[in-house]
Amino acid sequence: MSLRPDELEAIARELDERVRGAFVQKAFAPLPRVVFLELRQPGRTVRLCLSAEPGVARLSVARERPPSPEEPAGFQRWLRKELIGAKLERVEVIAPLVVRLWFDHHGLDRRLVADLRGSGANLFLLDGADRLLGASVPAPHLRPGATLTFEAHPAAPKPSPGDERLRPDPAADFPLAEAAEALYGARESSRRAQEIRRRLTAPLKARLKRLEGTLAKVEAEMNRGEEIERHRAMGELLAQNLFRFQQGQRTARLTRYTETGAEEIEVTIDPRRTAREEADWHFHQYRRLAHGVEHAKRRHAELSLEREQLRDELRAIEAMDDAALLEEVDVLSARRHGGPVRGKPYKEYVAVNGARIRVGRSSEDNDTLTFRIARPYDWWLHARGVPGSHVILEGTRNQPPDSEALVDAAHLAHQHSNLKSEPRGEIAWTQVKYVKKQKGGAPGQVTFTRDRTLVVRIEPERLERLNRSRTDL
After folding, report:
1. What average pLDDT does this structure show over 454-469?
2. Which residue segment(s) compose the domain that 361 sits in?
């Protein structure tokens, strides 16, 4: 349950008394409906939290803020543009569970409103005339420039005796605001960590389910030994007894010798084929199915390895504590697309060890692949010093890349760059978490650190195998 109206009123009065006149030096919006403002007063910094998250909505003072995603939300950019350097003039409750912070930003009035009511809770940045500049959670009816008003504020009901939930520490700088954070902060962090865990594991579980279905089909293909042997035996039996079939004859009784002795069987050939053609057909089926079984065995080994890697990743994620999960905050800022499904922004290949290799299709797709799809512990490759695609080799947390898989990925980075006509080239590689978007750069332009160089000499056979492994066609 979120803060009650009387609790919010008391915290707003406390903050109005103790932080009025402070200046905003930093602003963060790490998640939708959550804002942190670092306010500077002489001798101290106060970290103010406004959360409109259902169930943990609050106005509080926090000791720490959660990690922020690499790419900030649009609301954060509005906050930094309009509030950094602004002076806090007033904190007041203007309606039940609606609090407003007044700021003076170099002579311009700015208002940050936190509406903490129910599932529609939201945060708004307004100008001096209550016109909307930005909302933490955008919606079609929240258009910039629209005037927002809130219902009049009735008197807050008083809690029943003994119903106080906040446990203020009289020695604290902000007894009520810090008590509110103690009541809700850990709960919000735990819930956020579980949502991160769910989003990290959901695609892995979906892939594992599809993989199990593919393995079942591959295993069925592997278990066709009885059918293969039947074609071989029938082909040999026909080849040894061709003289028993007269022209136009479709059936004959032949003797087959087995481990248990001789047995008479009646053999029928297809009306469209001669006895010789029937024998050749059985031999063809034998070779085809035998080749398919060998291929299925290799494929089964590859898929089994991929299944174990997926299970290892799932076990690793399940074993992560809340602090480690919160470091993966970027998964919460991933956009959800609606409407028709568009093509993937990457080409997908399979490395020799079964790991996926993804190659960006365009400059914009490079950004999408590296900053929205790849995981921090995946491996990023790029031809050094020339334009080319971003290449992502699927990685495992806290494990170095497989050397042959890395060479596979380097071949693809070479072939999808301006080096592709050269017999050799230098490929830079590092983990995705060390790749950053170049500030002000064009799509696909990045900077990276902790990189190493792999000199690759093109092996045509390796490229041919990789091209055959492509799965997005």
Report:
1. 91
2. 338-468
